[in-house]
Amino acid sequence: MRQAPDQSPLGQLMARFPRAGRVDWIGVRPGRDAPVTRCETVEAEAGKGLCGDRYAGGSGKRGVTLIQAEHLPVIAMLAGVDAVDPALLRRNLVVSGIPLLALKGRLFRIGGVVLEGTGPCDPCSKMEAALGEGGYNAMRGHGGLCARIVEGGMIRVGDPVVASS
């Protein structure tokens, strides 16, 4: 899963981030079709997921789903809507200031929690109902990142998101 650090010039470039990111929004999905519950803090359990989220206790590869805050206006524009409520997208964390896809295969920290980016979080068919016709395609390439929790703890709105070196 996690790759050894690449010491090539490209690998060194890929390991550099201009700044830490930030958690802007937190939500948990209590059930398959249940509305997302917004919260200010959530407990992350290593190898499981976020307490109160339907994916907690699963494989762990999708223990946390993250989406890039900077992509929300793009998704809205592509879906033909004024704005997108993060709860409609059914991701756990909205993060700004750091490119999430660059965290794939890497360890990173949110507050005191250590995560590992496991892969892209592709949209599901629910996006058609959430965003209207074409909502699925509006999300393609903008769905965010799935991560597993390596070391648990609390995640709070405002926590920094930092790539491990």
Describe what you observe in this structure:
This protein is α+β, with helices and mostly antiparallel strands and 165 residues long. The protein has a single domain, classed as PK beta-barrel domain-like (M1 Pyruvate Kinase, Domain 3), CATH 2.40.33. 18% of the residues lie in helices and 33% in strands. The protein is built from five helices and eleven strands; from the N terminus they run αβββββααβββααβββ. The strands form two sheets. Strands 1-6-5-9-8-7-11 form a seven-stranded mixed β-barrel. It is globular.
Quick take:
By secondary structure, the protein is of the alpha+beta class. It contains 5 helices and 11 strands.
How much helical structure, as a percent, in the residues? 10-25%
Give the topology string: H per helix, E per strand: HEEEEEHHEEEHHEEE
Biggest β-sheet, characterized? 7 strands, mixed, barrel
Low-confidence parts: none
CATH topology descriptor: M1 Pyruvate Kinase, Domain 3
Task: Assess the beta-strand content as a share of residues.
Answer: 25-35%
The whole-angstrom Rg is: 15 Å
CATH superfamily: PK beta-barrel domain-like
Spatial strand sequence of the major β-sheet: 1-6-5-9-8-7-11
CATH class: Mainly Beta
Treating each run of at least 4 consecutive H or I residues as one helix, how many helices? 5
Q: Quick check: average pLDDT? A: 90
The SS-based structural class is alpha+beta
What shape does the CA trace take?
globular
Count up the domains. 1
Distance between the termini: 17 Å
Got a strand count? 11
Per CATH, the architecture is Beta Barrel
